[in-house]
Amino acid sequence: SFVRINQYADPNARSVGAFGSGPSLGNVPGAQEIQSGTPSRSASFLESPSTDYKTSGFQLYRIDSDILRMASIATPTVRRQVKRARPSLVRELVSFPFFMMALWMSAALFWMNFYIGNVADQMFQQADGNRPNAHLYTSYFTTILPLGAAAIPIYGWTTDNYGLPVAVIVSTLFGIAFTVMCLIHDLQLQLLTFIAYSLFRTFVFATFFSLVAKEFGYSSFGVISGLILCIAGGICLFQYPVREFAVPDENFKLVNWIQLVLVNVVGIFFSIYITIHLKDSTPAAKKRKQNKLRTDKAKTYGSTDNKNPLQQPSTST
């Protein structure tokens, strides 16, 4: 549109429509309706119309203003429709973000599955061999675990207002709380361990899928997330030899120390990396506020009909 307007910037060719052909704006005839004048392709679009608002250049300038206004409104939609050039899948698989997400998810998923598979034995140790109490607290765990889905709105609010880096940090804090309380020999305290574990699991999975979508886009979302989970699942197979060699005499103290170190070291390192990597990202809530402010300003100042000094004042007889 701008090229067309630039080509027909000659005031003598004011009858040419904004798009050169077809219907035009401002009740200006199209190119096929030109009755006089030869379009000039050498004139500049930047030429200002005469100070006389009733001269021949006025009508063309009004069309230019309308085009500018329409372009400013349509730009966000056009930008969303333009597909960004994505790197090849092979380059994404060998990228550092892919490695970091695979490392973080593998460490988290390994110990989450290990705890689920051994929670009954750990409760038996926490209950000092009292099987009824161990069975009771195991049933508490199976009840609390699915209730972790109630934390999804908390995750959404955190991500919406503070961004994905904060969500990663919060998941790391839940991981720290979960692994530390596993080391404390107190049966009643394990109820808080169950809650921290459920929140940790919910935040890890929700944050993982959000990070994959943000970093790699939706074109390769399924492949990337599937491969990372496949890698993490393969590493989870090592929990059986870990159980055999790191849990002597059904004592989980050593393996819980290993769990605390690995989960928290990887979690803290990943939190630092994501915070630096996404330091320029803007939370969705802040973007909405900015867009609303921009829209309000456009409503107040962006209309050329109210702002353009070339508008002919209405005359009354």
Descriptive overview:
By secondary structure, this protein is an all-alpha fold. Helices cover about 65% and strands about 0% of the residues. It contains 13 helices and no strands. The longest helix has about 30 residues. It is globular, with a radius of gyration of 32 Å. The protein starts with a helix and ends in a 10-residue tail after the last helix. The N terminus is likely disordered.
- Helices and strands, in N-to-C order? HHHHHHHHHHHHH
Euclidean distance between termini CA atoms: 38 Å
Calculate the mean pLDDT score and round it: 77
Instruction: State Rg.
Output: 32 Å
Largest sheet at a glance? none
- Strand content of the residues, in percent? under 5%
Q: Report the principal-axis shape.
A: globular
Quantity of strands, as a count: 0
Secondary-structure-based class equals mainly alpha
Q: What share of residues is helical?
A: 55-70%
Would you identify the regions where 5 or more consecutive residues have pLDDT less than 50?
Answer: 1-11, 13-65, 77-83, 304-312
Report the total helices.
13
Search tags:
317 residues; mainly alpha; 13 helices; 0% strand; globular; disordered N terminus
Summed up, what is this model?
The protein has helices spanning 2-7, 57-81, 89-93, 96-126, 131-144, 152-162, 164-183, 190-216, 221-236, 239-246, 253-277, 284-301, 304-307.
